[in-house]
Write a structure and sequence with these properties.
The structure holds two protein chains of two kinds. By secondary structure, chain A is of the alpha+beta class. Chain A folds into three domains: 7-53, Uridine Diphospho-n-acetylenolpyruvylglucosamine Reductase, domain 2; 60-174, 2-Layer Sandwich (Uridine Diphospho-n-acetylenolpyruvylglucosamine Reductase, domain 3); 181-292, Enolase-like, domain 1 (2-Layer Sandwich). Chain A is built from eleven helices and 14 strands. In chain A, the strands form four sheets. A five-stranded antiparallel sheet of chain A has the order 4-5-10-6-7, sandwiched between helices. Chain A is globular. In chain A, 51% of the residues are buried. Chain B is α+β, with helices and mostly antiparallel strands. Chain B has two domains: 7-80, Ubiquitin-like (UB roll) (Roll); 89-185, Orthogonal Bundle (DNA polymerase, domain 1). Chain B is built from seven helices and five strands. Chain B has a five-stranded mixed sheet, with helices on both faces. In chain B, helix 2 (89-96) runs antiparallel to helix 5 and helix 2 packs antiparallel against helix 6. The longest helix of chain B has 16 residues, at 163-178. Classes of the chains: A alpha+beta, B alpha+beta. The A-B interface holds A 1-8, 31, 34-35, 38-39, 42-43, 51, 53, 55, 79, 101, 105-108, 110-111, 189-191 and B 2-3, 5, 21-23, 25, 28, 44-46, 49, 52, 55, 58-61, 63-66, 68-69, 112, 115-116, 129-131, 133-134.
Chain lengths: 293, 195
């Protein structure tokens, strides 16, 4: 279908974008890559009265290693992350690059942006899952200035975030490197939204897991941490047996939806399998790092 | 009142200055306002990929972009692939490998593959499969499309020896020598259109 009529404005700075959002009122939306928004407008699922096009704010396209952490400009296209080669970034955050290939299709990744995906807050979106997994913080600018919103407060439900209507995400910060993190998902066609996705991060000491994070996408209205699965892993000797147990524990505690893509039971099975696969991939990185040395 | 904006958009090397309504997608601007009807529209929500064009050299879904966003951009459509009435090596390969049947999805696949092969001159079959998964085809079962893209990239593929195939084969070997001739062909075609 065709989208409903709207007023189009272009902003060339963050200040201008926020000013226009404030002026245009609550029905105005920011337009970044538009790869989710325009599809929803074509379906008339959303009918914003005005769009403020921020794609031209080129200063917000960057991936920067920052001491221990990583800063990603909100308007960085997915494709940049998929093709990044900087060893300083990849050392601690290779999970971003390997997860990027799951983000939409190739022609979606050329236009879609990191911050746009976070603001859209689809609970099965890879960047939203990794933000939750790695305790990212969203740097947000509104009429009152800048503030930081931790991922645990940011995602509030399906397509619902802590962003105010006149605020804009300018950066996403990952505080600490996560060398042993991985994301796995399953979709019927490569590039479609995952039916279920699992992301894990491990802190390993020799063969023992000191702490673990497990996040599932596609099973709830937000990217969901699974403390029960994390507890199985913490203090355990890593290996397929404990990975399987962590997956099974997660499958027990989640309450996923049933829809045309699959039943709740199917999603539980997928969750267990994908957690096990993601853990296997994360641990393989330990071996890769050791071999590299 | 309609919200309209003047834009300057370069399509296959030819500059167009037009006034577009903000709600008009790039696909509709190309088809209805500029007459580039080679760009097809299937689903209009970013799933099928029939409307894929190149925007500043990269493949995008022209149904997920408003025409007004393409102001001052270079767009390449399927019309820009041939030169002097001759198909380019990628198009020849689609023909030789039965990479199309009804043809509706073909412009999208050709533009997807054009962008893909510019970034990846020597792709593996797996990489081609992943790229091709972006678009939908309901006739071919994809195998012919994958073989065509691999062939155009200079990676062989199964062929039968017919006259048409020999032409395609010589086109393909020329493509290998010039390495980025897909781009060259479209740019030279663009230059002529400009004059």
């Amino acid at each position: 279908m065709k989208p409903a009529a709207f007023e189009y404005r272009k902003a060339s700075t963050v200040e201008e974008a926020v000013e226009q959002l404030t002026q245009l009122g609550d029905d105005a939306k920011l337009l970044a890559g538009g790869q989710s928004l325009v599809a929803m407008m074509n379906f008339r699922l959303v009918r914003p009265s005005a769009l403020v096009d921020v794609k031209g704010i080129l200063d917000l396209q960057y991936v920067e290693a920052n001491g221990e952490g990583l800063k990603i400009g909100a308007l960085t296209p997915h494709r940049w992350i998929e093709t990044m080669e900087d060893p300083g970034v990849l050392e601690g955050f290779s999970v971003l690059k390997s997860a990027a290939r799951w983000v939409g299709h190739y022609p979606i990744r050329t236009l879609g942006t990191f911050g746009g995906s976070i603001a859209h807050a689809d609970p099965s979106a890879e960047w939203c899952m990794l933000a939750t997994l790695l305790d990212a913080e969203m740097v947000v600018v509104g009429p009152g200035g800048e503030r930081m919103i931790p991922a645990s407060d940011f995602f509030q439900g399906f397509f619902t975030t802590a962003l105010e209507p006149d605020e804009m995400i300018i950066e996403v910060r990952f505080p600490e490197p996560a060398p042993y993190a991985a994301l796995q998902e399953f979709a019927r066609r490569a590039g479609d939204y995952g039916i279920v996705a699992a992301a894990v991060a491990l802190d390993l000491q020799g063969g023992e897991c000191r702490s673990a994070r497990v996040v599932l996408g596609g099973v709830s209205d937000v990217p969901l941490r699974i403390p029960e699965a994390e507890q199985v892993l913490e203090g355990a000797d890593i290996g397929q047996e404990v990975f399987k147990e962590a997956g099974q524990e997660a499958a027990k505690v989640i309450d996923p939806p049933s829809d045309v893509q699959g039943t709740a039971e199917y999603r539980r099975d997928l969750a267990a399998t994908l957690i096990q696969r993601a853990l296997t991939e994360a641990v393989a990185k330990v071996k890769e790092a050791a071999d590299a040395r | 009142m309609k919200d309209t904006h003047p834009i300057e958009i370069t399509v296959n090397g030819r500059v167009h200055e037009i006034e577009v309504e903000s709600r008009r997608t790039l696909a509709d601007v190309l088809r209805h306002d500029l007459g580039y009807t080679g760009t097809h529209l299937g689903c209009e929500h970013g799933i099928c990929g029939a409307c894929t064009v190149l925007l500043d050299g990269l493949p995008v879904r022209s149904c997920l972009l408003f025409g007004v966003q393409a102001d001052e951009c270079e767009v390449e459509t399927v019309e820009g692939l041939e030169s002097d009435g001759r198909l380019n090596p990628l198009q020849e390969a689609f023909s030789a490998h039965h990479g199309l049947q009804c043809g509706f999805c073909t412009p999208g696949f050709l533009m997807l593959a054009t962008g893909f092969l510019r970034e990846n001159l020597d792709p593996t079959e797996e990489e081609v499969r992943e790229a091709v998964s972006s678009n939908l085809c309901r006739c071919t079962g994809y195998q012919g499309i994958i073989e065509a893209v691999l062939d155009a990239a200079g990676k062989g593929g199964e062929r039968t020896e017919t006259a048409a195939d020999e032409t395609a084969a010589s086109e393909t070997s020329r493509n290998q020598e010039e390495s980025v001739s897909v781009e060259d062909v479209s740019l030279s075609g663009a230059g002529e259109a400009n004059q």
